[in-house]
Design goal:
alpha/beta, 10 helices, 6-stranded parallel beta sheet, binds guanine, 16% strand
Length: 292
């Protein structure tokens, strides 16, 4: 087996952010306004804090304006809904996100459904989900969009191929399967497997492309992968590790050490899908600003 192509999401994301920054400077030079992304962060979950911090940093790199709106864990649903209403009505804000998960006393779906579809740069509102599912212009969720972009930039053929998506979340699994199925994106034959799939291993073994978004470290093992397959790892579980400065490391859903030698191409964790996700949020915000 030849060595696999290691798909470098970090470098690809850096290139795309430079492309976005150039476009922003062009817009500003013509008298246009800088795109403005707002992020709502509730509480102090370590993962959410890091994601939002990185989103704000990416705004700086791209030349966007950014706003961070913070609430403590005890914020009421009514207060959050009022915040969403304000952002919907604020003409200076092109797009915004409410970082998930939210505390259990808040109905996440109710908050999402309050976001204007025109500012829903996460692509989580039912209008955007529905539009995506029938191939209409919309905001596409950042992680699946980033994976499609990586496959495209690495010239990985997907048309007609067997693709297995592991996981059925609203944020990754479902939209990923939808995009991989659609003629204008993946054009692949798609199977979605999840924690209750009886034939999960067999399905994976037949796949040309496996997209693992199941949230279990090292779940995809070498015996589940066909030689020559392309493996995309969406997992980012924090695993305690006393040797690391922060006391944890990020672990993907793929047993990289044993799976990589079998693959034609594979994404690492970190440095694979993760950086692309934030970069696609920036692209969605640029799209929102250009529409507005
Ligand atoms: N939590 C984990 N991923 C995401 C994301 O892409 N957007 C939001 N809003 N919350 C998340």
């Amino acid at each position: 087996m030849s060595t696999p192509v290691i798909i470098d999401g970090k470098a690809t994301a850096a290139t795309i952010k430079q492309e976005i920054a150039q476009e922003v400077e062009r817009i500003v030079a013509q008298g246009g306004k800088r795109p403005h992304l707002a992020a709502v962060l509730v509480g102090h979950d370590g993962g959410s804090e890091t994601y939002v911090k990185n989103k704000v940093l990416a705004c700086e790199t791209c030349g966007f304006q950014s706003s961070l709106i913070r609430y403590e864990d005890d914020v009421t649903e009514a207060e959050l809904l009022a915040c969403v209403d304000r952002l919907n009505a604020d003409p200076s804000v092109d797009g915004f996100i409410v970082q998930l998960p939210l505390p259990p006393h808040i109905d996440e779906q109710k908050i999402i459904e309050r976001i204007s579809p025109l500012k829903d740069v996460d692509g989580f509102t039912p209008i955007n989900v529905g539009r995506m599912s029938i191939g209409l212009p919309c905001f596409i969720p950042a992680t699946p969009k980033g994976i499609i972009e990586l496959l495209r930039r690495y010239h990985i053929e997907t048309s007609g191929k067997r693709c297995v998506v592991l996981g059925r979340s609203n944020i990754v699994g479902k939209p990923m399967a939808m995009l991989m199925m659609q003629k204008q994106y993946g054009d692949a034959t798609v199977t979605v497997c999840h924690s209750h799939s009886l034939t999960l291993k067999e399905e994976c073994r037949q796949a040309d492309i496996i997209i693992a978004a199941i949230g279990r470290p090292g779940f995809l093992t070498a015996d589940m992968v066909k030689p020559g397959a392309v493996v995309i790892d969406v997992g980012t579980t924090r695993v305690p590790d006393a040797t690391r400065p922060k006391g944890f490391r990020l672990s993907g859903d793929v047993d990289f050490e044993h799976v990589a030698p079998l693959c034609s191409a594979i994404t690492p964790v970190p440095g694979g899908v993760g950086p692309m996700t934030i970069c696609m949020l920036m692209l969605n915000t640029l799209q929102a600003a250009q529409r507005g």
